[in-house]
């Protein structure tokens, strides 16, 4: 997990705050995530859906897309190992700003907004 930039930053913060370290915050964090295996072309969420999860790509590739002004599906990003997505709707309590679909079979870590 330390290869993922967000976790590297968190590790530095945890190490600076000894009480977090004593509580095993990094171990706790790792227990909150679920491992999800998704098949090629599997839909994770549609633009406009309610945001329920934040994702980290462990293996594979996820295509992030949006409907353009003419209604044509436009690729915004191709996410691969250590990339994260789905955080906007959780952090801002809004609907999904784009669609996420597996471009190839992928392995993801996910965490719900509730967790």
Strand order of the largest sheet: 1-8-3-6
What percent strand?
35-45%
Reading off the top of the CATH hierarchy, the class of the largest domain is best stated as Mainly Beta
Largest sheet: 4 strands, antiparallel
> Helical content, roughly?
25-40%
Helix/strand/pairing class, anyone?
alpha+beta
CATH fold label of the largest domain: Jelly Rolls
The CATH H-level superfamily of the largest domain is Jelly Rolls
Order of helices and strands: HHHEEEEEEHEE
Please work out how many helical segments DSSP would assign: 4
Report the uncertain regions. Answer: none
Terminal residue distance: 18 Å
Could you please describe the fold and organization of this structure?
- It is a single chain.
- This protein has 115 residues and is of the alpha+beta class.
- The chain has two domains: 1-32, no CATH class; 33-112, Jelly Rolls (Sandwich).
- It is built from four helices and eight strands.
- Strands 1-8-3-6 form a four-stranded antiparallel sheet. Strands 2-7-4-5 form a four-stranded antiparallel sheet, with no helix packed on it.
């Amino acid at each position: 997990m330390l290869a993922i930039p967000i976790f590297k930053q968190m590790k530095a913060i945890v190490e600076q705050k000894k009480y977090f370290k004593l509580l095993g915050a990094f171990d706790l964090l790792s227990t909150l995530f679920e491992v999800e295996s998704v098949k090629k072309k599997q839909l994770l969420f549609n633009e406009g859906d309610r945001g329920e999860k934040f994702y980290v790509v462990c293996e594979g590739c996820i295509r992030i897309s949006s409907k353009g002004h003419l209604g044509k599906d436009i690729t915004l990003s191709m996410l691969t190992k250590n990339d994260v997505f789905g955080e906007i709707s959780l952090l801002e309590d809004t609907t999904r700003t784009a669609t996420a679909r597996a471009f190839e079979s992928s392995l993801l870590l996910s965490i719900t907004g509730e967790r």
